[in-house]
Amino acid sequence: MSGITIILATPDGAKFRTALMIAATSAVLGDAARIFFSEAAVALLGVPPADPADEWYASEGLPTLDLLYEEALDAGVALIACQSGLALIGLDAERLDPRIEAGGLLGALAADRGARLMAL
């Protein structure tokens, strides 16, 4: 099985939305998919996902960020919070959604060494 690993480098809602769509689509197609939230990007995981553009998306009949988040997890997308990032922003891994794992970049990349790699 092929896979994809997406590295989310910044706490940007639009990039989070894109990462979720790519990963969920890959998972639905049968590929392993994971998103690694690097350093400051882990801040996206500390609260229910929301994006200022959610209202606009919803008004056009498109899914909000929290719905994309749930769909991605339901499709089997692995979400990995950078341990260094958690320490940098003072977020305890115990406060994360239990479906999110804490880990490092090495582990995220080693999980599927043949995976396509994308950074956003």
From TrEMBL:
InterPro entries: DsrEFH-like. It comes from the Bacteria. This is Peroxiredoxin.
